[in-house]
Every structure is written in structure tokens, then in C-alpha cells.
């Protein structure tokens, strides 16, 4: 059963993309990042993991996300984290930018493990790229373009990263769907935390 109040903003990074057939065939997920929203508020119950693939990362993919084989050598394999991941997303609405890409990879990983499950079986999938195209027809609607349009800071995004991209997409989604007040509350909370840290440092001096 889908919980309409629970949303998971999700992104993945992969070893690359197949140029023949389905985009996911022969490739693997190497990073999953997810941000939980309940009643459109950040809970802090995020999911983030790097995964050791069963094949090398393509050089072109490394240029996109900067994740190398050496960085993944001591990470768990997907079979070791699959159940925790399924438990985390079960019953939620998944918000994914260009959802067919990520869902294709997720379902491919489940099939490789002979798991009798598809993402659509346990989640409601919403493609935020399609949402953006409907709201801003004829314009660029990748994540960077949406950040520029909506006034969201993405200065830390020098490379793609699953958790960072999920965090940014959560901000974008809230702004696109009338959540400016909630987004402002998040920024104010971060500013307050920074202010407290600065005061503590001054006292130590």
C-alpha cells in the first residue's frame, strides 16, 4: 500500500550505459542516494550507499560522477544491500528525475538477483523531468537549469553524486509544487546551525 504522505527523492549513479539494447543491460548501479520527505518536510532519514559492481566503471561515466573502481573496491555488492533498499522505498512515492533511467537500472538489479519484484509493484513512481517539461515547455529542464530557474543553490554540484543530486532535486520539487515556504524553512534551519557553530568556535578562541 502506498503511503501518500511519504515521498522518497532518489538518484543513482552507474558504471555507464549500454549503447545497444536497453540502456541498463551489462551495467550496474554503483551509488544510491535518497532523501525522505513526510508531509513535504525533510525527515533526515536518508539512504546513501556506494556499491561494488561486477564490472569496471566506464571512463565516460567517471567523467560524469568521478567514482572509480578503486573507490568501490571495499564496498558491499548490490545483493548485500538490496533488502535494506527495498524496505526503505517500500510503499513510498518515488520522485526521480528521468525516472525510466533509474527505474530501469533498479529493476535490472532486482532481476539479476532473481527477486520477484519491480519498483512499480511497491512504489508510486513520479518522473520530475516530465513534471518540469509540462510546467516549462520548450525550455531546458535538467537539474542545473531548474536550479537556475528556481533560485536554488547548486554550487556544490561540480560532479554528479546520487545523494547530492537527490537533495537538490528535493528542493527543486518543493519549489515546483508550491513549497517555497518549506524550502525557506530548510535554508533558515541550515543558517541557524551555522550561526550556532560559529558562536561555539568564537567561545573556544
UniProtKB/TrEMBL annotation:
General function of this protein: DNA polymerase III is a complex, multichain enzyme responsible for most of the replicative synthesis in bacteria. The epsilon subunit contain the editing function and is a proofreading 3'-5' exonuclease.
SMART domains: EXOIII
Pfam families noted in UniProt: RNase_T (PF00929)
Residues the entry annotates as binding substrate: 11, 13, 65, 165
GO process annotations (BP): DNA replication proofreading
Molecular function in Gene Ontology: 3'-5' exonuclease activity; DNA binding; DNA-directed DNA polymerase activity; metal ion binding
NCBIfam families reported for this sequence: dnaq, dnaQ_proteo, PRK05711.1
Binding partners and assembly: DNA polymerase III contains a core (composed of alpha, epsilon and theta chains) that associates with a tau subunit. This core dimerizes to form the POLIII' complex. PolIII' associates with the gamma complex (composed of gamma, delta, delta', psi and chi chains) and with the beta chain to form the complete DNA polymerase III complex.
Protein's name according to its UniProt entry: DNA polymerase III subunit epsilon
EC assignment: 2.7.7.7
Active site: 160 (proton acceptor)
UniProt enzyme class: transferase
CDD domains, per database record: DNA_pol_III_epsilon_Ecoli_like
Amino acid at each position: 500500500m502506498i503511503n501518500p504522505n511519504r515521498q522518497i527523492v532518489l538518484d543513482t549513479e552507474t558504471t555507464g550505459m549500454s549503447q545497444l539494447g536497453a540502456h541498463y543491460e551489462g551495467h550496474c548501479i554503483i551509488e544510491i542516494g535518497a532523501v525522505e520527505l513526510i508531509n513535504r518536510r525533510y525527515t533526515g532519514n536518508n539512504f546513501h550507499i556506494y556499491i561494488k559492481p561486477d564490472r569496471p566503471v566506464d571512463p565516460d561515466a567517471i567523467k560524469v560522477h568521478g567514482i572509480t573502481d578503486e573507490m568501490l573496491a571495499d564496498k558491499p555488492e548490490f545483493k548485500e544491500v538490496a533488502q535494506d533498499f527495498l524496505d526503505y522505498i517500500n510503499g513510498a512515492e518515488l520522485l526521480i528525475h528521468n525516472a525510466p533511467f533509474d527505474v530501469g537500472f533498479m529493476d535490472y538489479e532486482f532481476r539479476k538477483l532473481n527477486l520477484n519484484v519491480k519498483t512499480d509493484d511497491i512504489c508510486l513512481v513520479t518522473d520530475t523531468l516530465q513534471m518540469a517539461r509540462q510546467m516549462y515547455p520548450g525550455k531546458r529542464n535538467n537539474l542545473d537549469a531548474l536550479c537556475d530557474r528556481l533560485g536554488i543553490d547548486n554550487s556544490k554540484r561540480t560532479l554528479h553524486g546520487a545523494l547530492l543530486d537527490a537533495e537538490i532535486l528535493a528542493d527543486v520539487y518543493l519549489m515546483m509544487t508550491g513549497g517555497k515556504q518549506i524550502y525557506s524553512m530548510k535554508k533558515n534551519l541550515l543558517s541557524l546551525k551555522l550561526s550556532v557553530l560559529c558562536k561555539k568556535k568564537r567561545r573556544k578562541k
